[in-house]
Amino acid sequence: MQDLEYLRDLSPDESNVVFQLARVYRLLGDKVKSAQLLAVARDVSPKSVKKIERLLALTKDENVDAMEEG
User: Fold this and answer.
1) 17 within 8 A of 37, measured Cβ to Cβ
2) Torsion sign, CA atoms 54, 37, 44, 11
3) Mean pLDDT for the chain overall
4) Side-chain-facing half-sphere of 6: CA atoms under 13 Å
5) How far, in Å, CA of 51 to CA of 54, rounded?
6) What's 23's domain CATH number?
7) Which among 35, 47, 32, 44 has a CA at the least distance from the CA of 8?
């Protein structure tokens, strides 16, 4: 998480970094922070909307690693 935070600070317009950081927060159970970061990723890269929607739809019991496929 610290590495991703560092990378996000270096290049805030890199949507993949922001998306991966959102996944980490989701895995840690911080759904609010995850949703905030997903909103940033959506704004930076509107093409990623489908991938972002899938992550938002996941429940805590679902496998977040499935997001790698998209």
Assistant:
1) no
2) negative
3) 79
4) 3
5) 5
6) 1.25.40
7) 44
pTM (whole model) above 0.85: no
Q: Whole-angstrom Cα distance, residue 3 to residue 22?
A: 13
Nearest-angstrom CA–CA distance, 51 and 20: 11
Counting the structural domains of the chain, the total is: 1
Within its chain, how far is the Cα of 6 from the centroid? 15
User: Domain range for residue 64?
Assistant: 2-69
Instruction: Look at the alpha carbons of 45, 47, 49, 50 in this order and tell me if their dihedral is positive or negative.
Output: negative
Stretch 12-28: mean pLDDT, rounded? 89
